[in-house]
Amino acid sequence: MLDTVRIKEKLEKLASRDPKYKVFGAYAHKYVLFPRLSERTVSAFERKWRVTLPADYRQFLTELGNGGAGPSYGVFKLGEEGDSAAHSKPFRGGAFVRDPSKPFVHAKAWNLSRSVWKRKPETEGMTTAQEDRAWAAWDKKRTEDYWRGGVMNGALPICHLGCALRQWLVVSGRRAGEVWNDNRADDQGISPVKQGKRHIGFAEWYEGWLDASLRRRL
Length: 218
Fold this sequence. Notes:
The protein has helices at 4-17, 26-29, 39-49, 55-64, 114-117, 128-146, 202-215; strands at 80-82, 88-90, 155-162, 165-170, 179-182, 190-192, 194-195, 198-199. The chain is α+β, with helices and mostly antiparallel strands.
């Protein structure tokens, strides 16, 4: 569970120590949390998407804020995604966030197989037109295998790290409560956020950002 008093104290201390927003992404959220959500609003979201939010994340939403100040460009509002906490929009289910109610199927880091990457075009000697066709075919295949919404079923995007890299919170299945990295934009697949060998949840993820930021020379 979150120690909300300790979190508030650390966040206030970090904001006072970093008035020029030197911590990466801080200029986007400025250490400000959005207004808290009511239990009724959170419950309505859970009914709509047929999920049960992890207890520490639910506590964050109802006792601290509906996103805002957090790792990188901040924590998204509940049910939203984008390139920063301040510039997010509701997701509606589809190619990116498809079905959070379905079990998250990954137990360890995942990426496309080597056989898929071997299909990446070798364009030496091709004309410009041939090269364009080869890359278009590769991009189509890569998108179908890599960016289909089902890859992240059972999870909600919670943070944008920049350059289309994100982090997700698992809400369904055996890994519910864990935070995972989404590095598909760098062709690096997805992987659990860890402390040592242990997968961590929302509370450790959030307070870990605070602690790491406070250790910086600002």
